[in-house]
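Hi support team,

I've been running sequence recovery on a batch of backbones for a student project. Most finish fine, but this one hangs at about 90% for roughly twenty minutes before it completes. I'm not sure whether the input is malformed or the queue is just slow. I've pasted the structure tokens below so you can try to reproduce it. Let me know if you need the job ID as well.

Thanks,
M.K.
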């Protein structure tokens, strides 16, 4: 009988931007997970965020911080603030007015540090809907980011964009439905995508890890991977097992308080 060879996974050092959830709250509902009537523990949210940051630092990654702004409770979800590649930053234009002022804070942060900055003119929610892999940008659209923004993204960042249509409102950002595991590999839940987008993903990534819905709805795909370690929410237990069988090292994190606003580990980090 043959035996399955488990690949040796190699981590690469990353740099992330994060925003402390000092003003975190669920004060409005702009996705199906948010319920302002559901109690939120801000101190617990800060503790969970600190634990995530601590794990990233222990793994050898760098974490920069942007100051939180009063009145912007979702600013903790730094992934939505911009797309950053090769010293260029395309700052988000948010679909919902509640988050629109975040753009100014992120624009200032990047300009002050010498990035080549452009502000999106069409709806574009940053890395929440744009994931870099295999020399391209996978771009989710249908809820928060407009398909018409793709030309602008390519023009500023110089990467080809592969549009993917999201069809399930529970998975309103690409990073809730798909995660990049390494330079060439992804995992995703097919049910979040239109039939044409599923075919496109299958063609581009025939050996991708297809995740079950029960792990997807636990934000299992809102994960951070450095090529070896995969940080994902604690409830996504079966996905963690599958990742371990593929040679990755899953690290479970309790982000239950942040999940009340529809976010997980990936939402809290913007890769620089």
């Amino acid at each position: 009988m043959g035996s399955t060879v488990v690949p040796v996974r190699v981590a690469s050092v990353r740099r992330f931007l994060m925003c402390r959830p000092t003003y975190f709250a669920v004060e409005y509902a702009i996705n199906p997970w948010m319920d302002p009537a559901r109690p939120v523990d801000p101190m617990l949210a800060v503790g969970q965020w600190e634990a995530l940051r601590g794990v990233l630092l222990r793994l050898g990654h760098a974490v920069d911080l942007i100051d939180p702004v009063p009145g912007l409770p979702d600013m903790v979800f730094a992934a939505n603030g911009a797309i950053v590649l090769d010293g260029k930053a395309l700052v988000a234009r948010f679909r919902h007015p509640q988050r629109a002022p975040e753009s100014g804070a992120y624009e200032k942060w990047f300009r002050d540090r010498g990035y080549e900055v452009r502000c999106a003119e069409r709806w574009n929610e940053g890395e929440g809907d744009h994931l870099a892999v295999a020399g391209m940008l996978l771009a989710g659209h249908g809820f928060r980011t407009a398909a018409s923004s793709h030309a602008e993204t390519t023009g500023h960042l110089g990467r080809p964009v592969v549009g993917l249509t999201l069809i399930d409102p529970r998975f309103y950002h690409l990073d809730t439905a798909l995660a990049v595991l390494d330079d060439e590999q992804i995992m995703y839940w097919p049910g979040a995508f239109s039939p044409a987008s599923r075919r496109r993903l299958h063609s581009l990534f025939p050996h991708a890890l297809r995740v079950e819905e029960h792990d997807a709805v636990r934000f299992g795909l809102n994960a951070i991977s450095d090529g070896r370690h995969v940080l994902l929410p604690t409830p996504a237990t079966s996905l963690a097992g599958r990742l371990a069988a593929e040679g990755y090292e899953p690290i479970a994190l309790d982000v239950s308080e942040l999940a009340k606003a529809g976010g997980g580990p990936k939402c809290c980090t913007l890769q620089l």
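--
Follow-up from support: It reproduced on our side and the slowdown came from queue contention, not your input. The longest strand covers residues 136-141. No action needed from you.
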